[in-house]
């Protein structure tokens, strides 16, 4: 969702945009290159004659073999950096995630700590951490300039990652609140993430070579966020409270089950997800806002209102 | 024999010690190790700090001071020695007596060619050695700093238990040398626990029994008996200290099982001019527990900048003068209503009793300047003994039960009285919690209690002694200490606040002037401080039948009875007492209360609703509420009429400064720190500063706190935050410690709380910040009208209503609790620090109880 939105914005801003993805992007006004970020030929073709690269390609699923995460999130990043350098690209915006630096339990007003592939919490976060380290190491004041931007929990109308999962579970009555549901969680409305990435593209190169966390700067208790998203999506608001410790335990068991047994799809709950939903994750945005010259344009309430409008439109479109 | 060596690099690194500071020095046949920042100083030092560690530490103890001294501006050369047999200095295998150690240190400083000015710094037995050096080098000496040490020990006195064990026959070598028990025990005294790397640094020079022989030698050299070889040197130093007239600083950790309060008392007595700071909660290793390096350098800087106080020639009338003048007056001074035990005391009787008690105290050995703790409920007894102490010049320590047993114990111990006068309950605590050596009972004791508690006298005994005395007591000097009162401790442990006689007198005058109280305005005092002021004001006073320590026990009937008893014109009460009066009123008290011309709600912020309700019971009275604090009892005043007129604003309106008081603000900067110069312009949010004749003299035994609170010459920093409006009214927006610093700027809690309280279902609210300062999120914790044991996050409707009321401020969360915690003393100030700590945990996803 974020990739498409960035491409559309850049086109709208009058830039000459080329997209690389596994299936055609169909972004009007952009050149479409179909292929994998792990394919040298496709990558080379994509970065040719570009001034800048925004790297959003990643394997983001919750489970899967580590090697698959590594291939895309580390190998793909390395390939993209190499080809960008060879092609004489000037700027490289590496889209990362705050989870690359998350090694403990709660993050309350945290800054953008160093990526830690050894201790991040799951395969996605570990490989994204390794990828970010590669990217920032490639920053060269005399050549390719690299900046890492870490949007946290991006959501918006049409999002299948976060909103889609929440709505699906809530509709099935399988969205419990862990513990008190009081843990403060900060999110990023998609338009704000797009603004931040575009701002990073244009930022003073003096701020390159470092990671920046991007959020709305409006942390809310997780129960309130879930309720807001469910209400805006027209699904039942979660009411059932499950002890956080229990949820983490169940997550651990399911992790093991999905690792060892040939079970289809994703487990209904993983330890990582249980932890994410029961511990605080919010960030000190002062450094980011100053470096990028960016502030979130769409507040949480406005974002939820837009989600509700979208939901209503979807409903009327599918109505007989 | 092992010559001195330099510590291994990892030990230096663990202590953040620049390797260039560590060196060995040969003095005759002996070799020493020391830390000396001299070689790395960029500018000429102001002077030298000569630091001497105790047993069983080494110069590592002073590492932070060595580093801090090497600052760019006004650096100090800091030399921290390892005593012989200790740290990395030579192991000679010899026993060093105290006199040897003092002489050895002198030889070392001669060898170093030390020039003045020198300030000695000592810890533990190093304090004694450093003082020995100080006495031998008067030409170089410019000051002494002592931390948890002792210079004297009466042979008859019991040794500290910890040392008794260590010096017991057979235990000594095993405890100190064969095993590292003594070392480990000492390291375990740190609060909080030492970082593992730091503890290893302390252990490093003492890995083997050979290396530890000095630890045993040190303990064996404690001159606990009269015939001990080190006794004469101890006596020399202990006596010599009395003659030291250089500036002195005592930094003390009270949680010390070895150097307990009596050693601090002894040092204060020998060095009466010393500046003292007790770090509440710190222990024997105070140098590790607290920023002692910062304290020492701050003190040295302040000594340089200090300006002597100007002698005051303002007219002064002692607080007790009125009593003496009315010694022949048979009119009523006070009435204590307590059902069948009610008492009426005439001016003559009160004056006589006061005079007898003053003389009795003097006759039993209490001298002017001695501290006497009064643990007596307000009433005739307390009044008499209070004025007796003031007459004698004994310093009264007034701690109230509102602090709770723990707080009271901490407070009384900090004030360190020589005498406790109390009711039985207080005396039991005083004996078992070792508050003071001498106990006097105020009132009857159960049979046998006096003996079991070793109570030395009763007030009646003292009065009898006084009647027999023909002594003519001189009045105390106006600028001598008169009283130690305590803050409520709503933001940390209660602090002792010292008033001089002159300042107490000024406080009486400001009350008299502000509220027009004098001989023809009888008063009822349902609020402790004012019970005591009646005799000073010359006003007849009555205390209603209630438990003064529980203001909620005052009934409308009891108040009416007290008003009727003295035909009172003025009523003083706390908000809690007023609330109780309003609740229990049934109309029958109206005739009695009709004559009251003024009532005051004091001690805590009061809501306009409560004042309105109380005003209906006293329709002829003007309702006022003063704003003040333990450090300045009356600062501003506001009437109910004025409160009605000003309406709402950002904070609580506390009115205009009363005559004789100046109020200024020190503006908060973007980090929420009050860095602004004192400014009396309207519209600036900052820390409230007060200047008046009745502001406290100083904090007691809290030199650093006093420095911070008086850093603007002539002003007292209150710790409250607020602003002045265009009409000169002061608005209080909260405590400085409770200011929020969000990414969007500084926020003060009170105004936001008031807005949250406008939501119908909200009874009270606390606004606190969670997260790191500068990026804090605003959290509103509300106590709803109806609490159900549900989720802690407010239901959407309530959250939306609260957010709506706080429009313009991003509220991260609205939480609900059954009851917001309040301070013990007034049960009205919300304990935001506790609420914030709780919210921080809950919003991190943890389970926590408030």
Number of helices of chain B: 31
- Identify the quaternary structure here: heterodimer
What Rg of chain A, in angstroms, do the CA atoms define? 19 Å
Total beta strand runs of chain A: 14
- Rg of chain B, alpha carbons: 30 Å
Secondary-structure element order of chain A, N to C: HEEHEHEEHEEHEEEHEEHEHHEHH
* Average of pLDDT of chain B: 90
Terminal-residue CA separation of chain A: 28 Å
Shape of chain A: globular
How can the largest sheet of chain B be summarized?
13 strands, mixed
Runs of chain A with pLDDT <50, length 5+? none
Query: Beta-strand level of the residues of chain B, as a percent range?
Result: 15-25%
Shape of chain B: globular
Residue runs with pLDDT of under 50 for 5 or more positions of chain B: none
Terminal CA distance of chain B reads 60 Å
Concise description?
The complex is a heterodimer of chains A (320) and B (850). Chain A has 320 residues and is an alpha/beta fold.
SSE inventory with pairings:
The complex is a heterodimer of chains A (320) and B (850).
Chain A: H1 2-12, E1 18-21, E2 31-34, H2 40-47, E3 52-55, H3 66-86, E4 91-95, E5 107-110, H4 123-137, E6 145-151, E7 154-155, H5 162-171, E8 177-178, E9 184-185, E10 188-189, H6 190-202, E11 211-214, E12 220-221, H7 222-233, E13 241-242, H8 244-260, H9 271-278, E14 281-283, H10 286-292, H11 300-318
Parallel strand pairs in A: 1-2, 3-4, 4-6, 5-14, 6-11, 7-10, 8-13
Antiparallel strand pairs in A: 9-12
Helix pairs in contact in A: 1-6, 2-3, 3-4, 5-7, 7-11, 8-9
Chain B: H1 9-14, E1 22-27, E2 30-36, E3 48-52, H2 63-69, E4 77-81, H3 98-112, E5 118-123, H4 125-136, E6 141-147, H5 161-167, H6 171-178, H7 181-187, H8 196-203, H9 209-220, H10 231-241, E7 248-252, H11 261-270, E8 275-278, H12 286-289, H13 292-305, H14 321-325, E9 332-336, E10 343-346, H15 347-363, E11 371-375, H16 380-392, E12 395-398, H17 404-415, E13 419-422, H18 424-432, E14 438-441, H19 449-452, E15 457-458, H20 459-468, E16 481-486, E17 496-500, H21 501-515, E18 523-525, H22 528-537, E19 541-543, H23 556-566, E20 570-573, H24 575-584, H25 590-593, E21 598-601, H26 608-617, E22 622-629, E23 632-639, H27 640-646, E24 652-657, E25 662-667, E26 686-691, E27 698-699, H28 703-709, E28 716-724, E29 730-735, E30 740-742, E31 745-747, H29 749-756, E32 762-770, E33 777-784, H30 796-805, E34 811-816, H31 832-842
Parallel strand pairs in B: 3-4, 3-5, 5-6, 6-7, 7-8, 9-19, 11-12, 11-13, 12-16, 13-14, 14-15, 18-19, 18-20, 20-21, 21-22, 33-34
Antiparallel strand pairs in B: 1-2, 2-4, 9-10, 16-17, 17-27, 22-23, 23-24, 24-29, 25-26, 26-28, 28-29, 30-31, 32-33
């Amino acid at each position: 969702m974020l990739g498409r939105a960035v491409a559309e914005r850049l086109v709208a801003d009058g830039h000459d945009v080329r997209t690389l993805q596994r299936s055609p992007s169909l972004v009007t006004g952009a050149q479409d290159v179909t292929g994998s970020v792990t394919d040298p030929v496709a990558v080379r073709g994509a970065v040719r004659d570009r001034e800048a690269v925004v790297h959003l390609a990643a394997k983001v699923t919750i489970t899967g073999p580590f090697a698959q995460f590594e291939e895309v999130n580390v190998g793909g990043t390395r390939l993209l950096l190499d080809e960008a350098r060879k092609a004489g690209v000037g700027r490289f915006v590496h889209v990362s995630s705050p989870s690359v630096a998350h090694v403990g339990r709660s993050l309350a007003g945290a800054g953008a700590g160093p990526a830690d592939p050894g201790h991040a919490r799951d395969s996605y976060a570990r490989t994204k951490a390794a990828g970010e380290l590669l990217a920032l190491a490639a920053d060269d004041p005399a050549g390719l300039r690299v900046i890492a931007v870490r949007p946290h929990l991006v959501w918006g109308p049409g999002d299948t990652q976060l909103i889609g999962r929440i709505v699906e579970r809530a509709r099935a009555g399988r969205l419990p609140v862990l513990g008190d549901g009081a843990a403060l969680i900060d999110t990023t409305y998609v338009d704000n993430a797009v603004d931040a990435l575009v701002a990073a593209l244009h930022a003073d190169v003096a701020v390159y070579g470092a990671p920046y966390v991007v959020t709305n700067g409006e942390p809310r208790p997780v129960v309130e966020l879930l309720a807001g998203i469910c209400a805006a999506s027209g699904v039942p608001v979660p009411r059932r409270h499950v002890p956080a410790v229990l949820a983490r335990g169940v997550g651990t068991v399911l992790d093991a089950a999905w690792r060892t047994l040939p079970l289809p799809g994703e487990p209904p709950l993983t330890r990582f997800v249980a932890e994410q939903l029961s511990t605080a994750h919010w960030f000190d945005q002062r450094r980011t806002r100053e470096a990028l010259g960016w502030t979130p344009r769409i507040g949480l309430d406005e974002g939820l209102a837009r989600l509700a409008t979208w939901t209503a439109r979807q409903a009327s479109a599918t109505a007989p | 024999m092992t010559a001195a060596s330099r510590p291994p690099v990892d030990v230096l690194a663990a202590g953040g010690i620049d390797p260039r500071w560590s060196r060995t020095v040969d003095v005759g046949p002996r070799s020493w190790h020391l830390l000396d920042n001299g070689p790395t100083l960029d500018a000429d030092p102001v002077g030298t700090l000569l630091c001497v560690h105790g047993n069983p530490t080494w110069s590592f103890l002073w590492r932070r001071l060595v580093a801090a001294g090497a600052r760019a501006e006004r650096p100090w050369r800091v030399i921290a020695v390892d005593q012989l047999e200790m740290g990395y200095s030579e192991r000679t295998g010899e026993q060093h007596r105290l006199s040897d150690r003092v002489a050895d240190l002198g030889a070392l400083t001669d060898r170093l060619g030390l020039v003045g000015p020198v300030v000695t710094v000592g810890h533990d037995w190093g304090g004694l050695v450093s003082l020995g050096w100080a006495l031998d080098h008067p030409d170089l000496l410019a000051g002494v700093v002592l931390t948890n040490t002792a210079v004297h020990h009466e042979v008859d006195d019991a040794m500290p238990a910890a040392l008794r064990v260590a010096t017991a026959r057979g235990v000594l070598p095993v405890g100190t040398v064969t095993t590292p028990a003594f070392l480990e025990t000492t390291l375990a005294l740190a609060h909080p626990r030492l970082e593992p790397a730091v503890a290893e640094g302390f252990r490093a020079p003492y890995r083997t029994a050979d290396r530890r022989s000095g630890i045993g030698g040190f303990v064996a050299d404690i001159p606990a008996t009269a015939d001990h070889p080190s006794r004469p040197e101890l006596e020399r130093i202990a006596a010599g200290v009395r003659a030291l007239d250089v500036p002195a600083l005592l930094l003390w950790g009270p949680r010390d099982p070895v150097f307990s309060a009596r050693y601090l008392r002894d040092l204060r007595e020998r060095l009466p001019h010393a500046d003292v700071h007790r770090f509440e909660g710190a222990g024997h290793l105070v140098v590790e527990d607290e920023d002692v390096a910062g304290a020492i350098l701050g003190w040295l800087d302040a000594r340089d900048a200090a300006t002597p106080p100007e002698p005051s020639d303002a007219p002064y009338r002692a607080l007790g003068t009125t009593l003496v003048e009315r010694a022949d007056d048979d009119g009523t001074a006070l009435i204590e209503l307590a059902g069948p035990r009610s008492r009426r005391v005439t001016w003559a009787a009160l004056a006589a009793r006061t005079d007898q008690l003053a003389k009795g105290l003097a006759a039993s050995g209490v001298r002017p300047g001695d501290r006497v703790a009064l643990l007596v409920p307000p009433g005739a007894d307390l009044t008499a003994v209070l004025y007796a102490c003031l007459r004698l010049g004994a310093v009264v320590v007034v701690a109230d039960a509102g602090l709770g047993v723990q707080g009271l114990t901490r407070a009384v111990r900090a004030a360190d009285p020589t005498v406790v006068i109390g009711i039985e309950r207080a005396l039991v605590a005083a004996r078992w919690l070792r508050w003071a050596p001498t106990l006097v009972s105020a009132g009857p004791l159960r049979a046998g209690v006096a003996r079991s508690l070793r109570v030395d006298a009763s007030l009646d005994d003292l009065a009898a002694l006084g009647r027999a005395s023909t002594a003519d007591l001189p009045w105390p000097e106006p600028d001598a200490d008169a009283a130690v009162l305590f803050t409520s401790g709503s933001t940390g442990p209660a602090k002792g606040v010292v008033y001089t006689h002159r300042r107490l007198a000024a406080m009486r005058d400001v009350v008299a002037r502000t509220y027009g109280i004098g001989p023809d305005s009888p008063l009822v005092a349902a609020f402790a401080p004012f019970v005591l002021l009646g005799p000073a004001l010359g006003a007849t006073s009555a205390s209603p039948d209630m438990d003064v320590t529980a203001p909620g026990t005052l009934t409308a009937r009891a108040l009416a009875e007290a008003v009727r008893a003295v035909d009172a014109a003025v009523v003083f009460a706390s908000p809690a007492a007023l609330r109780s009066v309003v609740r229990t009123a049934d109309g029958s008290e109206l005739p009695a209360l009709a004559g009251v011309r003024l009532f005051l709600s004091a001690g805590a912020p009061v809501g306009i609703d409560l004042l309105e309700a109380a005003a209906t019971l006293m329709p002829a009275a003007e309702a006022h509420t003063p704003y003040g604090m333990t450090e300045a009892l009356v600062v501003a005043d506001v009437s109910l009429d004025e409160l009605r007129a000003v309406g709402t604003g950002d904070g609580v309106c506390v009115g205009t400064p009363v005559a004789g008081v100046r109020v200024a603000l020190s503006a908060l900067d973007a980090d929420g720190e009050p860095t602004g110069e004192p400014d009396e312009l309207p519209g600036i949010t900052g820390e409230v500063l007060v200047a008046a004749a009745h502001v406290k003299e100083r904090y007691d035994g809290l030199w650093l706190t006093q420095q911070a609170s008086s850093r603007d010459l002539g002003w007292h920093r209150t710790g409250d935050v607020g602003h002045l409006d265009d009409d000169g009214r002061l608005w209080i927006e909260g405590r400085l410690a409770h200011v929020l610093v969000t990414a969007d700027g500084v926020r003060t809690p009170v105004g936001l709380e008031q807005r949250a309280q406008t939501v119908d279902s909200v009874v009270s609210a606390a606004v606190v910040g969670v997260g790191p300062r500068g990026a804090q999120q605003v959290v509103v914790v509300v106590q709803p009208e109806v609490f159900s044991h549900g989720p802690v996050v407010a239901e959407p409707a309530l959250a939306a209503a609260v957010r709506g009321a706080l429009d313009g401020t991003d509220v991260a969360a609205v939480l609900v609790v059954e009851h917001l915690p309040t301070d013990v003393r007034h049960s009205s100030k919300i304990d935001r620090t506790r609420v914030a700590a709780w919210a921080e945990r809950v919003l991190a996803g943890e389970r926590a109880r408030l």
